[in-house]
Amino acid sequence: MNVSEEQQKPENRARPTTDELRAFIAEDWAPRTPGVTEQTEAARYAAARRDALSAAFPGDRLVIPAGGLKVRSNDTDYVFRPHSAFAHLTGLGGDREPDAVLVMEPRDDGTHEAVLYFRPLAGRDTDEFFADTRYGEFWVGARPTIEDIELELGVSGRHLDEFADAVVKDAGEVTVRVVRDADRDLTRQLDEARTTESTTQAGVSEATQSADQEDLAEADDELAHFLSHLRMIKDEWEIEEMRKAVAATRLGFEAVIADLPEAVAKGRGERWVEGVFGLVARHEGNGVGYDSIAAAGDHATTLHWIKNTGELRDGDLILLDAGVEVDSLFTADITRTLPANGTFSDAQREIYDAVYAAQEAGLAAVKPGNKFSDVHAAAIRVIAEHLEKWGLLPDGVDVEATLDKEHGQYHRRWMVHGTSHHLGIDVHDCALATREEYMDAELKPGMILTVEPGLYFKADDLKAPEAFRGIGVRIEDDVLVTEDGHENLSAAMPRTSADVEAWIREVQAR
Ligand code: GLY
Ligand code: MN
Ligand code: MN
């Protein structure tokens, strides 16, 4: 809500500002052209999501902050990204409206009015216009007016300064719930206000106060859980955004493929790969949806290798796990494992083909009626079969024994992660859904999930065949559950070892 306490405010570069200078800066600006001329396409879908939220919490005031700017160092902020629940319920995408708060204000008839509190455009006669380095128009650009936001999003707009009073005006009578992790400062202030409001009426003991705080946290958790689960079935607009994200991601992968010889020749090749993908992501969309994993050789066996500091050598595989986040913040999450010189070695191909077979089994399990966990079960069985064939499971442990959840699981030495997760505005979407709603739930049309088995043989893994050591492979696709099965949204990106080799030849010949 306020300028972060962490942010330093050095005086050593401050300069005096006279009234004459203020007046001079305030004059002779051309009239502003309207920033917004029509409602966004996303607004209609966001309204339907807010209706679902309203129906679930009649009579409650619901507070969904965008979150604030985050300090990168000293007085320099990261590019702003709103909280995913805020983006989902407003349709506001990328670098928009730090500190804004969506409030679902209860009405007597059980519905809610959607009100967006934000910091609107400041006049050119204000100090903020030229002197506020964090929010001023001279420094970070113009913001929308209240009228702009009301037209763009179809919600009521209010100045952020009105929020603090409005949110707690009747906190003793109305249940106020907040998405706690979106804006820690705001949540702390709201906690204080809510607790004070409900405990000042009578002399209340400390035990009662802490019970009240637990109640608050529980009420907030119910809201967070609802909003996370609300994203599980994608509407037609979200599916279209995901298609755009996947199409842009394909362009990023093809730019990397075109540059593989360059990445090898230049040295520090992982950085080159990360940079080339990032350039396309920034050009085609908002940027990358998560830090790209550009992992060559043995680095591919480190699951979250985002340092990308290594070499890419002729003969290496490069595992590229990357996704473009489009302007609406929906992101793809795709992995291809590519031979740097265009051709898999025998050992690389053997591992790659095993992972491909596991992915095919996982994909075949993506259909309504199957459970989410069936996808992993199908893929991991194929992984286990290959490990058994290669003689890597312990003596006396066969496929069924390693798949035993209580006493087996030896295969996890080589594939420790799950095969799937939901995907959307967050790369790991719907993270607060319960096990019953997620892992144990039936797949339903409109869900989008990844299918991403892998095999990872570390260079120092003495249980692995020597030829396999230092090879990591993952193949990851983004899949939409349909009425009668699934659609692989990333099917245009080749997957078999032969098709990947042909793809590299084709792209590099362009
Ligand atoms: N890129 C993160 C994941 O695949 O889950
Ligand atoms: Mn993934
Ligand atoms: Mn991934």
Automatic annotation (TrEMBL):
Q: Which GO terms describe its molecular function?
A: manganese ion binding; metalloaminopeptidase activity
Known catalysed reaction(s)?
Answer: Release of any N-terminal amino acid, including proline, that is linked to proline, even from a dipeptide or tripeptide
Q: Which Pfam families match?
A: AMP_N (PF05195), Peptidase_M24 (PF00557)
Annotated region Disordered: the residues are: 189-215
Q: Does the keyword Hydrolase apply?
A: yes
SUPFAM superfamilies noted in UniProt: Creatinase/aminopeptidase (SSF55920), Creatinase/prolidase N-terminal domain (SSF53092)
Domain Aminopeptidase P N-terminal per the UniProt entry, residue ranges = 40-187
Output the Gene3D superfamilies linked to this UniProt entry. Answer: Creatinase/methionine aminopeptidase superfamily, Creatinase/prolidase N-terminal domain
PROSITE patterns on file: PROLINE_PEPTIDASE
Q: Where is the composition biased (Polar residues)?
A: 196-210
Names of the cofactor(s): Mn(2+)
> What's an example GO cellular component term for this entry?
cytosol
Report if keyword Calcium is assigned: no
What is its EC class? hydrolase
Q: Which InterPro entries match?
A: Aminopep_P_N, Creatin/AminoP/Spt16_N, Creatinase/aminopeptidase-like, Pept_M24, Peptidase_M24B_aminopep-P_CS, X-Pro_dipept-like
Q: Family assignment?
A: Belongs to the peptidase M24B family.
List the PANTHER family hit by this protein, alphabetically.
Answer: XAA-PRO AMINOPEPTIDASE 3
Q: What is this protein called?
A: Xaa-Pro aminopeptidase
**UniProt organism field:** Knoellia koreensis
